[in-house]
Specification:
Structural class: alpha/beta
Number of strands: 6
Family: Belongs to the NAD(P)H dehydrogenase (quinone) family.
Shape: globular
Catalytic activity: 1-(beta-D-ribofuranosyl)-1,4-dihydronicotinamide + a quinone + H(+) = beta-nicotinamide D-riboside + a quinol
Number of helices: 8
Subunit structure: Homodimer.
Helix content: 25-40%
Largest sheet: 6 strands, parallel
Keywords: Cytoplasm, FAD, Flavoprotein, Metal-binding, Oxidoreductase, Phosphoprotein, Zinc
Distance between the termini: 33 Å
Radius of gyration: 18 Å
Strand content: 5-15%
Enzyme class: oxidoreductase
Length: 230
């Protein structure tokens, strides 16, 4: 939709990967719609995933015992976060839609993306303990988790060895995005692209293109435990 701002946080090492193709399609299709698209390519940026004292510029609130959560909260309030965090927070603040594109690693997002969540979405910016979930500080934004798996769709079913894929989504969608007040769109999952035919991979890419064409008409999921565990 023309005028909308999109931030895609991309976590894959190889531009020629299937994830890279999904990213390319999203940038092209959303740009074609008139959206302003920004990409944070975490590996290309050599984004630092570790949450350390280096994230605070200047004095510490308590130099006797380092508490990352407290220190980043205090630093945010006085404008004392490191430059890379300020830049990413600005991208988030300006975005109407956040897309996270990544391969599933060990039932989770890659460490570099988790590090982005840990470091960028600090208290005071993304949430406050008295303002979380529907009251989170990033209200008015949408999010979408688009990712690939190594296992098949059958493996990630309730009857499958991996269990329902929604169990995996609980900490990402509910524990992070919903906690910060962000509405969540249905995830886009490409199951085992490395283990299917070239024709099937093309079908997956086409399906992503088609979904993006009507993405702005979609309603968010019901952000409740029932959606994940019913």
């Amino acid at each position: 939709m023309a005028g909308k701002r999109v931030l895609i946080v991309y976590a894959h090492q190889e531009p020629k990967s299937f994830n890279g193709s999904l990213l390319k399609i999203a940038v092209e299709e959303l740009t074609k719609q008139g959206c302003s698209v920004t990409v944070s390519d975490l590996y290309a940026m050599q984004f630092e995933p570790r949450a350390t004292r280096n994230d605070i510029v200047g004095r510490l609130h308590n130099s006797e015992a380092f508490n990352y959560g407290v220190e980043t909260w205090e630093a945010y309030k006085r404008g004392g976060l490191s430059k890379d965090l300020v830049e990413e927070q600005k991208k988030v603040q300006e975005a109407d839609l956040l897309i996270f594109q990544f391969p599933l690693f060990w039932f989770n997002m890659p460490a570099i993306l988790k590090g982005w969540m840990d470091r960028v979405l600090v208290q005071g910016f993304a949430y406050d303990l008295s303002k979380a979930y529907d009251g989170g500080l990033l209200q008015g934004k949408l999010s979408l988790f688009s990712f690939t798996t190594g296992g098949s769709k059958e493996m990630y079913s309730k009857e499958g060895i991996g269990g329902d894929i929604r169990y995996v989504l609980w900490p990402m969608q509910h524990g992070i995005m919903h906690f910060c007040g962000v509405k969540v769109l249905e995830p886009h999952i490409c199951y085992a692209p490395e283990n299917v035919s070239e024709e099937k991979r093309k079908e997956m890419l086409t399906a992503w293109t088609q979904r993006l064409k009507t993405l702005w008409k979609e309603e968010p999921i019901d952000c409740s435990p029932q959606w994940y565990f019913k």
